[in-house]
Amino acid sequence: MKKKIIVFTGAGISAESGIKTFRDADGLWEGHDVDDVASIDGWYRNPKLVQDFYNMRRQVAMQAKPNAAHEALVALDKSFDVQIVTQNVDTLHERAGSDHVLHLHGRLDQACSSKDKRLIYPIDGYEIKMGDLCEKGSQLRPNIVWFGEAVPNMEPAIEMTREADIMIVIGTSLAVYPAAGLVDVIAPTCDLYVVDKQINTSRIPKRASTIESAASEAVPYLVAQLIERYATL
């Protein structure tokens, strides 16, 4: 039976494809206060600003291409039972060829109803316009989980993580909750690997194997090591 791997990815893996990380050192995101463009309160205050911001982000994400880290993870599928859980809202994992991807914070390529988030629609192109309505007559918005909203995919992510034999954490400082809590639910026997340019050692178990490096350099190396070490067992 193939071993189960959970790959948990954050902004660091997408940054190497040209997608900016969540916020700059000054607390701003593309020049905007994060609360203005990434919270449900911001949407209520100024929906057009939020809509324009995500239309811009969507353009950038559509132009970005998967990097060596995304591509290396696809190779794990041949030898392991792999589930990717990502905080990222781009679709670079899917575009690289990964089949099992769970998005904790939504997807940029989807719109949803502003009144009923269960109503989800693919976006044709990069733009949601003010005046674009769902089937119930409500304004469409990005299918993104903002601050102040529940994270509906956390429960399935927790269940998957609890069953993992191996967990790989890539490109996240483990600072955004509840997603960061996934490292706390792995089994005592689960092997844990962490890859990031700046590893937050205070947030990971001491038994974790760490690689403090860019994902595009470290992940292909780690994948090759895992295949050699585990796939023949």
The number of helical segments is 8
Overall pLDDT score: 92
Q: What gyration radius follows from the Cα positions, in whole Å? A: 18 Å
The beta-strand count equals: 11
Read across the widest sheet, the strand sequence of neighbours is 5-4-1-9-10-11
**Global outline:** elongated
Uncertain segments of ≥5 residues (pLDDT<50)? none
Order of helices and strands: EHEEHHHHEHEEEEHEEEH
How large a portion of the residues is in β-strands, by DSSP E? 15-25%
Helix fraction, binned, reads: 25-40%
Distance between the termini: 9 Å
Structural class label: alpha/beta
Largest sheet descriptor: 6 strands, parallel
What does this structure look like?
The chain is an alpha/beta fold. It contains eight helices and eleven strands. It has helices at residues 11-15, 34-37, 40-45, 47-63, 68-75, 92-96, 154-162, 215-230; strands at 4-9, 28-29, 32-33, 81-86, 101-103, 106-113, 120-122, 140-144, 166-170, 191-196, 209-212. The chain has a six-stranded parallel sheet with strand order 5-4-1-9-10-11, with helices on both faces. The protein has a three-stranded antiparallel sheet with strand order 7-6-8. A hairpin with a 2-residue loop joins strand 2 and strand 3 (32-33). Helix 5 runs parallel beside helix 8. It is elongated. The model has no long low-confidence stretch (mean pLDDT 92).
Q: Characteristics of this structure?
A:
233 residues; alpha/beta; six-stranded parallel β-sheet; three-stranded antiparallel β-sheet; 8 helices; 30% helix
Brief write-up:
By secondary structure, the protein is an alpha/beta fold.
